[in-house]
Amino acid sequence: MISFSISRFPSTSPSFSSQPSATVTESFRLDLYTTSSNTPSHSFEHKVPSDVKVGNFTRKSGRRVMGMNPIEIGDGGFGKNKKKGKEKIYWVCSNCGYTAGQWWGVCRSCTVAGTMKEFHESKTSEVHSKVNGFMVLEEDGVGSWLPQQQGELRPLRLIDINRGLNHQHWRIPLSGSFGNEVSRVLGGGLVPGSLNLVGGDPGVGKSTLLLQIAAMISEGGNDGEVYPVVYVSGEESVEQIGNRADRLMIESDIYVYSSNDIEDILKKVRDISPRALVVDSIQTVYLKGIMGSPGGIIQVKECTSALLRFAKTTNIPVLLIGHVNKSGDIAGPRVLEHIVDVVLYMEGEKCSSHRMLRAVKNRFGSTDELGIFEMSHSGLQAVSNASEMFLSEQHLDSEILAGMAVAVIMDGSRTFLIEIQALCLSGSTGSRQVNGIHASRADMIISVLIKQAGLRLRENAVYLNVVSGFILTETAGDLAVAASICSSFLELPIPNDIAFIGEIGLGGELRMVPRMEKRIHTVAKLGYRMCVVPKAAEKALGTESLENMKVVGCRNLKDVINTVFPKLVKRS
Known about the structure:
By secondary structure, the protein is α/β, with parallel strands linked by helices. Helix content is about 25%, strand content about 25%. GO terms for molecular function: ATP binding; ATP-dependent DNA damage sensor activity; damaged DNA binding; hydrolase activity; zinc ion binding.
C-alpha cells in the first residue's frame, strides 16, 4: 500500500534569476510512503513565486492551492496530464444556425420551435484543425485554405485605401438592356471579390439568369475584350449546360465544369484564374472532412465560408444559386445570408412569363431597386416599359367597364403604373375579398368611403384585385383603390387616360406621398390626359408644363367624386 502527503512552506530563494533576491516563493513537496517504513521512499519538490495565480487561487493569499495537474504514479514523470479525445455534442438550429450546448425546444435566437438538430464533433479530429471553410489548397497541395499571409497584413489608413468601390468604372460592367436591368439591382455592376447569392422558386429561371450573366461578363462589357468565366454545376452535366447555352445562343469563353467537391472546384478555378465564378448550387457542393451531407447546415456554412475567403483573396466575384424552402426563404442556416455580400431574390408566377429580380441585401448598393424581365424561348429579356405588364390591354370598349383605376407607385427608383380592379355587388352579405392588397388597408379605405364619402357599401360585397399579381404595399395606391370602388358602386367607368396618386387619411383627406414630382412626370411621359393628386401636390408643381397632361388637385374623397364622375356623366 502506498500513501502520500503534500507539504507547503514559504521560503526565500534566489533561483529565479529574473526576480529580486527577496522574492518569496512557496515550495510544494510530495512524499511517498510505504506501509513498511515511516521514511518517505520518494520526494518531489516544486517551487512557485508567491504572487503567481494557479487555478482559481493566488499563492499570495495563503489558501489551499487548486488547479494543479493530476499526479500519475509509475510513468516516470510528475504532474502529467493525459487528455483523451472526447466526442463533443451540440445542437444547431436549422432555421438560423444558432449553436447551443444543450437541446432547446424553441431556438433561443429565432424563437422557432422544433428546429434544434443534434450534431457530433470529435475534439481530436484533424479536419477542424486544418479545414475550417476559410482555407483553400495551395498550388503544391500542401498547407491550408487560402493562406492568411499574416506577415504582409497591417492596418491601413482610410485615406490610403482605394475608394473606387462606389465608382462605376471600378465595377465589372454589364452592357445591353439585360445588363442594365441586372446592374440596376446590383447598384451599378458586379463588384470584384464579392460573394453574391441568388435565390428563387424552382423553375423560376435562376440558372438561366446566371448563365446569361456569365456570358455577359465573359464578353467583356464595353471594352470588347474576352475574359474566361467558370460555370460550375453540381446538379447538371456539362452536356446539359451546353444544351441550355445553345438554346440561349451563348457563344462565349465560358469554362463549364460539373463537380460537387468544393476543394476540387477551387483548385481548378485557381488554375484558370477567371474573371468570375458561378456555382449552381450551394446546396449541392460539399467540403471533405466536414460532417453532414451536401445541403446540410454545417456543409452549407463551411462551403460558403470557403467561397467567401476565395473571393476576397483572389478578387474574383462569385455568384451562387440558393434553393428556397416552402416558406420562401433560402434553404440552409440563416447565417448563410449573413456571410454573403449580396442576396438577390428572383420572383415570378407560374402562369406569367414576367420575372422580377430584387435585392434584399446589398453591401455595395441600394436594396430598393427592382429588375423586370420576361422569360422567352431565348432566355430572359429586359422589359423596357415596366408599366405594360401591370396594365390591361387598351380595348376599344374598355371605357364602358366600370371599376378600374390606374395607380402610380414606386419600387426603388422605378415608377410603375398598375391597374386596380373593383367589383361591388348589392344585396350580398357585405363580404370583402382582396387580392394583391393588404386586407386591413382595404377595410380602412372602404370604411372611409362609407363614413366620409357617403357611399352605401354596408350591404355590398366588395372584391378588389391588382392586375398581374402585383402586391400593393405603399400608400400611394390608396386613391386608385378608392376610385375603382366608387366607379364600380356608381357604375360609372373611368377612362384609361386618367391616373390617381395619393394616400387617404381616416378623415377622407388626401395626403402627399414621397417623390410626387417624379411620379407625375412619368405619367405625363406615358401619354395620360389627367392625373388626380392631393391639393398640396398641385400647389408644389405650380405652373410647370407636363406635356399636355392636366394635374387635378383634390382635398378629400368628396372632391374626387365631384370632380371626376360628373364629367363622365355628361360625356355619357
